[in-house]
Structure formats: structure tokens, C-alpha cells
Amino acid sequence: MIITDDHMHIYKHLKLKAIEEFKKAGGTHVFLVNLLTKNYNIFPKKGEDFKEMYEKHLKIVKQANEIVKAYAVLGVHPAEITILGEKIGYKKAAEIMIDALDIAGKYVEENKAVAIKSGRPHYSVSEEVWKLSNEVMFHAFKVAKDVGCAVQLHTESYSKEGIEEIAKLAKKAGLKLYKVVKHFSPPKVDEFEEIGIFPSVIAMGNNVLRAATISSRFTIETDYIDDPNRPGAVLGPKTVPKKVKELLKMGFDEDFVLKICKYNIEKVYGVEI
Question: From CA 71, how far away is CA 68, in angstroms rounded?
């Protein structure tokens, strides 16, 4: 049986042991996403400096591929704008982030990654920072359109209005909406289907079951962050396999699991499972 975690981080705590736990629980495929530059002790002054983080991430994805099938997602966490901006100015920070997204797109073109990461801050920011963040995210959509890949988004807490606003930007960039993945989505999969953006449902509580009772148009994630100061956060690496098996016990068949863990993944990311 194919079981896919659509969003996980591996970098400092359990590292590959987390992937081994995922596999032992039944996991077969995982999308590994880089964190912030500061997590890798990198303090960028130009877009090129993100390459060091990308290379470190690709190295661990390669190692993870010896355990399960792992895909690399490369890009720029939206919180970089405030972290960098406080030191070098927000406009300059946005310029660096845009350059770093261009570089991430080149890795996709070279088949070293399957998607890029972007978004906008999940916390309160000034009007200037919000505007710049939207410009960065819009650029990510243009890069994704040009290289033919998906974008995983880290954004503010879900609201239908917010997702509709993001969808407008993606449309303006010419990116197909199903290629826009809202990481850490709630189980409101009907609203996502109406708008067109693809939800990666966080496997917390009964979210997966609630989503499944509405539609099969979603993927599942743990957002495991591999932080030694927060072990098991956001959710542990065994969670997605556990939730998928719960669906089977609740009467959903293996074809349903194939839809969310294989066919949806193939459509969104253009990979073959």
C-alpha cells in the first residue's frame, strides 16, 4: 500500500531515524522540505547564499531515498523576510528571496527537486512587509509556471478569502491552481475544490477523517519539523501512516487511499509513483 506524507522536515533531531520510523509505520513516499536558512546556520546576504542550504537539504533527501522514496522541495520560507529584513531592510530581503526562488527553480529544471516553497508570513506584519511578501509569492508562482512545477505554500491561518486572494495571484502568474498546494490545511476540502487550490491536510486530530467524508481531493502531511527542542512537533513521523490505516478501519477502501496518496500526488507534482 502506498502512503505519502506531503510535507516533512528532516534536519537536526531524529534525521534519518524519522524516515525509518515513517517506513516502519507503513510510509512509502515523503516530500521533504527545507526549513529556514538560520536552521542550517546560514545567514544569507544574497540569493546565491541559499544554495548552501539547498545542497545540504538535497544531501539528506538523497540519504532518505535509501529508506523510502523521498522528493525534495526547495525554496524560501516566508519568515525570511522579517529575519533578514530586520538586518538589511525589507526591500533588500525580498530581492534576495526572489533570487533564491529563481535558483530553486533551476534545481527543479535539473530534476533535483520536484517543487518549490514560498508563501507569506503566518504572523502579523506591517503593510510594507505584507506587500513585499505577496510580491515574493507571486514571483514563486511565475517560477513554478516557467519550470512546470508545484508550489507548496506556508501562509497565514486558513480563511476562504485569503485562499481566494492567493488563487488570483496564481492565476495572474499563469500557474494552474491545482499546482498550488496549501501546506497545513484544515479539512475544508470542499472550499479548496471550489477555489481550485490543492489542500495538504494536516493529520491532526480527526482532520483526515473529516476531509475524507467530504472528498478525496486532498493530500496528507505531518509537518514534522525535526527540532530537538520540540520533539514530535508538529506531528510525529508515524502519524500519516496511522491516519491512513484508520481510514481503512472506518470503511474507506484502498482505492480511496490510492487517490489521496498516489493519484493526487502524481497530478500535483508531476511525479510517477
Answer: 10
Q: What is the pLDDT of residue 262?
A: 98
Average pLDDT, the chain: 98
User: Cβ of 203: how many Cβ atoms within 10 Å?
Assistant: 26
Q: How many angstroms separate the CA atoms of 224 and 11, rounded?
A: 10
The model's pTM:
0.98
Q: What is the pLDDT of residues 35-60, one digit of tens each?
A: 999 999 999 999 999 999 999 999 99
Cis before 244? omega within 30: no
Contact between residue 5 and residue 265 where contact means Cβ atoms under 8 Å apart: no
Q: What is the CA radius of gyration of the chain?
A: 17
Q: In what order do the strands lie in the sheet with 115-119?
A: 4-8, 29-33, 69-75, 115-119, 150-154, 180-185, 198-202, 219-221
Residue 204's pLDDT is: 98
87 contact partners, CB below 8 Å, separation of at least 6: none
Rounded to the nearest angstrom, the gap between the alpha carbon of residue 67 and the centroid of all alpha carbons in its chain is 21
Q: Confirm if 258 and 104 have CB atoms less than 8 A apart.
A: no
Q: What CA–CA distance (Å, rounded) separates 209 from 85?
A: 40
Residues 6+ apart with CB under 8 A from 52: 40, 42
Domain assignments of the chain as residue spans, ordered by start: 4-269
Distance CA 234, CA 213 (A): 24
What is the topology classification, in CATH, of domain 4-269?
A: TIM Barrel (3.20.20)
How many CB atoms within 10 Å of residue 263? 14
